[in-house]
ABC transporter ATP-binding protein
Amino acid sequence: MSLMQLENVGFYYRADKWVFRDVNLTLEKGQTLSILGKNGAGKSTLLQVALGLATPTEGEARLGGTATTRLSPAKRARLACYLPQTETVNVAYSVTDYLLMGRTPYLGAFSSPRAKDRLRVRKVIAEMGLEDFAGRPINELSGGEKQRVGFARALVQGSPLVVMDEPTSALDMGNQMRTLKKMRELTGEGFAVVATTHDPNQAFLLGGKVALMEKGKPVKVGAAAEVLTSSSLTELFGTPIRVRWDDQLHRHVCLGAERIEER
């Protein structure tokens, strides 16, 4: 059974302006999907449609084999967790309490977190190196700290499908690499991971499938090495880009190839 499936999915805000059409994707346990595209290409909208947070104009989106239109919010949360680009939290919850909320889909309407829920939170805090601000109000954290906490909450939730919208956009390079490494580990543990990014190097590092989005054109889906070529990326981003194999890293890398004159 597929964890996520899009079948002939299309979406528009206006009938004369499709964001995307004819998208066909299937994601199984242990697989990764990186979604690349320029700003405004529809990456975030595609995630929302895939999760049932927006209704497709045509086609069908399914989670765990069930159409998203038939899923309750609690059932959806048990199937998939979602980390948006930005999440505004106006209440001064501590980081620990905020992480505990990730267990809500598994609790009754008037139930309190169980001992095993609190244990899971402590484990994730240690695993993700959040001890220094576990007691701080989340609304006082920096953008990068909030992004790290958001990823940790996805781990606390523990849904088999982890969907993230630009999960490293506010992170320094060290925390970017630690996050990407953890994403790879999740697939090794049987989770499926979906992430949007502007950086082809992240898609090469994660491996798995890639969906290349360009407004007004069909979405290209395939293995990273097949979809992310020098020519396809140069055309997509409108600047010279070179993709080459790195023998030391044992993966493809992407480099900007436009000459910038020194002054």
